[in-house]
Design a protein that fits this description.
Layout (H helix, E strand, L loop, with lengths): L1 H7 L21 H23 L6 H4 L4 H32 L4 H16 L2 H9 L7 E4 L3 E4 H4 L2 H27 L2 H9 L4 H31 L11 H12 L2 H30 L11 H19 L1
Antiparallel strand pairs: 1-2
Helix pairs in contact: 4-5, 4-8, 4-10, 4-11, 5-8, 6-8, 8-10, 9-10, 10-12, 11-12
Length: about 300
């Protein structure tokens, strides 16, 4: 009897009937909406506070291209580029020294990194600036001799303070990039008769750049912002220019906002350069690189035109 009931539930062909379709009900995330409302409320409160505050917003575009502001911006970019050049070149040398089998060179590299990473940049700037209290003259016997106060200018003080400190961080970044390359690459190059220097230049460093470039880009952006500390050694940078213009014109806060805007513009340009540089060194690791934002925008624009043409 039970067998007859089971047979009656089956189709004539003897196959089981298909299951009913599942109705999927999406989960409602009320917490997301609450968090979004809270964030929007905080943003609205900040906008209202600055809108009703005693801020002369017209002064910001008025002084945007002020000659003093542009001079400070130029000096900031100059000290950033030169400090990063010193940091990268010296950092590569220190990274190679750190991996050397000679214990003297590796120990010197380790001590340099330990000292400059362990002391604040602000302290190092003041140290270079006040070394004239210890040394009255700088005497490099056959090359140069002068008073320390004339030799250690604010520009040189800022350059040494930022560049030598950055070298310690770049040394660790370069060392991590060199260690990321498989040792078999070095063994294969040596088996082909390549010297150690040529192996580094032709085999190891190009592959390590894929690991070195992203943190180096972050260091460049960080150096641009850290350069504002050189105001402590009386170097005329963007922050110093903004303070001087604000004090003379009576718009102190507005000029600080203007300085922040110029820093944001400069960091945005550097971020775009870092993005394309990372794409360049990622060519050997990815079969097909993802499209750039400009390429995606062009594709969307072409798709919209195509749909519009089809509708017409």
């Amino acid at each position: 009897m039970s067998v007859d009931v089971e047979k009656s539930d089956r189709s004539p062909a003897g196959t089981p009937s298909p299951p009913e379709s599942i109705k999927a009900i999406p989960v409602r995330h009320y917490g997301r909406w609450v968090a979004a409302l809270v964030v929007l409320g905080v943003i609205a409160a900040l906008v209202r506070a600055f809108a009703t505050g005693n801020v002369n917003w017209d002064a910001i575009p008025q002084y945007l291209f002020n000659p003093d502001i542009l001079k400070g911006l130029r000096n900031t970019l100059l000290i950033t580029v030169l400090s990063m050049i010193i940091g990268i070149v010296l950092g590569v040398i220190l990274a190679v020294m750190r991996q050397s089998k000679n214990w003297v060179t590796s120990s010197v590299s380790w001590f340099y990194i330990w000292f400059f990473r362990g002391t604040p940049v602000y302290v190092q700037l003041f140290l270079w600036f006040n070394l004239g209290l210890v040394f009255q003259y700088i005497d490099i016997m056959p090359i140069y001799k002068d008073e320390w106060s004339d030799f250690m200018t604010p520009f040189l003080c800022a350059l040494l303070g930022l560049g030598l400190n950055e070298a310690a961080y770049m040394a660790e970044i370069c060392r991590a990039g060199l260690n990321a390359v498989d040792e078999g690459q070095t063994e294969a190059a040596h088996a082909l008769g390549m010297s150690h220097a040529k192996t580094l230049r032709r085999i190891i460093v190009p592959q390590a750049m894929r690991v070195i470039v992203p943190p180096t880009g972050n260091e460049v952006i960080n150096m641009l912002k850290t350069s504002s500390l050189v105001i402590a050694v009386q170097y005329y940078d963007l922050l110093q220019a903004a303070q001087n213009v604000g004090r003379d014109s009576g718009v102190v806060v507005e000029m600080l906002i203007l300085a922040a805007a110029w820093y944001l513009i400069a960091t945005t340009v550097l971020s775009i350069g870092q993005y394309y540089l990372e794409r360049y060194y990622a060519r050997g690791a990815s079969r097909q690189l993802p499209p750039t934002p400009l390429q995606r925008a062009k594709a969307k624009l072409a798709g919209s035109f195509h749909r519009a043409g089809g509708a017409a």
